[in-house]
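ligand=glutamine
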Amino acid sequence: MDYQEILNNILASVEPLRSEGKQATYIPALAMVNPDHCGIALRTLAGECYAVGDANVRFSLQSISKVFALALALHLEGDNVWTRMGKEPSGAAFNSLIQLELEHGIPRNPFINAGAIVISDILVEHLPQPENRFIEFVRALSACPSVGYNYAVALSEKKQAFLNTAIANLLKHHNNLHGDIDRVLQFYFLMCSIEMSCAELAQAFLPFANHLVPFDYDGVTLTGSQVKRMNAIMQTCGFYDEAGEFSYLVGLPGKSGVGGGIAAIYPERYAVAVWSPRLNSKGNSVAGMKALELLTTLTAESIF
Ligand code: GLN
């Protein structure tokens, strides 16, 4: 498969779409990013790396980090995680409060904000230095020691965190947030603020593409079964109220973020990351979704 040629064609094809949609502005620091960027990187388990466009420019991972946080929580707590949240698609916006109230403080899944805030609570509860432990794990996954938090982005999000603070309060009311609300949110915002390039992000997702080899990064271990099941949750819950659409158009497990990034995996073959900051109304990258749709169409490779 000539992935390089395919990525070149995809970049050219999505060019007209790059001006569609709107970059996230509710986190003021994200509004300052040049919205015209577009990059794609694909890494195979065989060790090849293909890249086009702005594949080496770092961007804010935002909700994509929730995959790494879930991995660390599953390592620490195993199936106990599922006593505090579900594994069902939400069909609602990533920051929705309605479902959380109706379902008595049990988030639908770990990839909506409510679920990721509970995961943050688990990590803060377990780890003496959660921010350090988390970034070391992510550095090991991405094989990149210079990956880090963007403190300005985290602070910018904190200053406008009305909805996430409401979610945390609702969780606390239902006894599903054990720690101090401000402390847990501090971790959550930092976790979302991690920056990587597409090339680094594709590397960080590669371990999730292979449940057949032992997962062990900086001492964070998962069984093959846990990795496989994480893919199932990415498939059904990775794109909020557009998870069905992504599954229909792309057919790969993946995760998006409001920074405009999407990471996806083709099990036993590759991990791919795309970035284009302009988002559709569901908070997913317009050009990024199209690029991945073209990738699985042109290669005729998807999980279906
Ligand atoms: N930090 C963002 C928030 O909580 C993440 C949202 C996202 O990427 N969908 O709103």
